[in-house]
Queue: 2 jobs
Job 1
Amino acid sequence: MQISSRFTIAVHIFSCIDTFGASEKITSDFLASSIQVNPVIIRKLLGQLRDAGLVAVQRGTGGASLAKPADEISLLDIFNAVESLESGKLFHFHENPNPNCPVGRSIHPVLDGRLDQIQSAMEREMQRITLADIFADTKKYIAITSHS
Amino acid sequence: MQISSRFTIAVHIFSCIDTFGASEKITSDFLASSIQVNPVIIRKLLGQLRDAGLVAVQRGTGGASLAKPADEISLLDIFNAVESLESGKLFHFHENPNPNCPVGRSIHPVLDGRLDQIQSAMEREMQRITLADIFADTKKYIAITSHS
DNA sequence: TATGGTTGTAACAAGCGAGGTTACAACTTC
DNA sequence: GAAGTTGTAACCTCGCTTGTTACAACCATA
């Protein structure tokens, strides 16, 4: 099962805030047209990002902005905000291994640490990448492809 | 979205083969009772593991066994065998970013590499762990908890 | 060759989460 | 109050996971 597109959509939202935030009001409708999904999807996502302390959203008047400097928001922060994993675990373990079987008893103690180890490797990599990196790359890409 | 339990079930299957393979015939019914899931689930999984060249399954007479030495089967091999990701990608990207928006155009080129980088970190960790490691840990755990 | 245990697979169902959509109350500025 | 926006409820569809029954194909052995 793939990780849901909420994650890439969230990054897209941040890139829009950075690119257009100075000149335009970043509403859910504006974002919806860049991302091409329903505005309500965006609002729900912005709600998750707000609850995680990553964005500020203006009620009534409208508009989203960063709640922190870009280099203090990592991809892991975003991932954890929008991808609420069951009890924080990336891997879904089968529920009822047979406790009367030696292997059934041992599978959890043996595997749990390994699964954490794998998940940690992924999280470490996500933590190393911040929005500052993404914004820099986006600026570079837009500059290269626009001065034609 | 969590990774499906097929992965942990598959590892459980291998542990049973290693622990009981010498003394018992490892049928889908036997495995089903240790894992406590339906035998048909096991047969489908064994089919995927067989197609990936990881196990050998006897038709008619029944029984599963390793198709390779344990230290030549990594958790990544198992993961790829049972968790068929859409086009091999861990992250589901939103389908239609707006090509008329600078950010919509750049989000793919900017993010794709980063996502691959994260997925690679996870895969590298999975590749480092082989069934030989799991089997050794299982033996250790069973030994410790059985001589009471 | 007939029997019994087993695998492979089809067919279906229930449950869950993702993603979509409409609708509307609550809010804020003008 | 009007206009634009957010927050949220309610509902839908779709696909995937997991579970289940059923049965043909298979193979060793009696």
Note: Chain A touches chain B through 62 residues (CB under 8 Å).
Job 2
Amino acid sequence: MNTGTKRSHQREAIILYLKGRKDHPTAEKIYTDLKEEMPNLSLGTVYRNLSLLSDTGQINKLSFAGKTDHFDADTSPHYHVLCEKCGAVEDLNMPYDYSMDENAGNLYEGIITSHSTVFTGICTNCCRNGEII
Amino acid sequence: MNTGTKRSHQREAIILYLKGRKDHPTAEKIYTDLKEEMPNLSLGTVYRNLSLLSDTGQINKLSFAGKTDHFDADTSPHYHVLCEKCGAVEDLNMPYDYSMDENAGNLYEGIITSHSTVFTGICTNCCRNGEII
DNA sequence: TATAATAACAGTAATAATTACTATTATTTT
DNA sequence: AAAATAATAGTAATTATTACTGTTATTATA
């Protein structure tokens, strides 16, 4: 019998790495960090596995204007904060508002299944450091 | 005296074009469409002006996972629907919820200034055509 | 109105992010 | 243990975007 997919140390390292962090690293960041323990890891392998994991719903790809994609191993619905000073992407501990999908669905002739919200502002760290935009 | 910026037919054509449509075209789409009336328009000029207009707040750059950027001449706060079947980006006629920013600000140690929400689903057209994901 | 200053342009080259290709290696099935 | 094949490393190619350069267009001022 054929499962169609085989495990690999590389893929498992990638998902383990992602699950172990709260920031939302880019493909490049994942690559350079993992390369320390897997010296002949290839950047293409990282991209291929991120796509595969994203396509199978095991991780999420996050997209922001003018920034390269970030990846998140937490696939439960939640919101993000993007710092316009330093570019950091953080989780926001605010309950996902399912009623927004309902409301949107009632106003829209097509089908609404979910929403993705990114808050913009200045992150805790940059505020502490007294940064102004 | 020096204003620092000079008008150009190209830039005015770009913003006029964007204001005249409700979809949210990509740089490439803007370029190919405008090239018909301005045959020696350059793609670099389109990108340069989209950046300039975006930086000065005259238009907005929209970013979606796995898609190239789209541009919107409507800078008032509003929501979008992304069709996961055909990739279309439409406006959603639903009032911008300022209370979300308040709520987020109360829960977050940093500063929240705004939010950007994209609803995902199947657009009116694809629904009409009986498309299933 | 003509001239000078310079922003913007077209066209092209360069860069950055991502994907595709290929021979080899690792995993899984039999 | 052998056969089948998914995944890899390394490299090449592609795509989206930005940078460069000599020329053109716009604007300020004489």
Note: Residues 2-8, 10-11, 40-45, 48-49 of chain B lie near DNA strand C (CB under 10 Å from a C1').
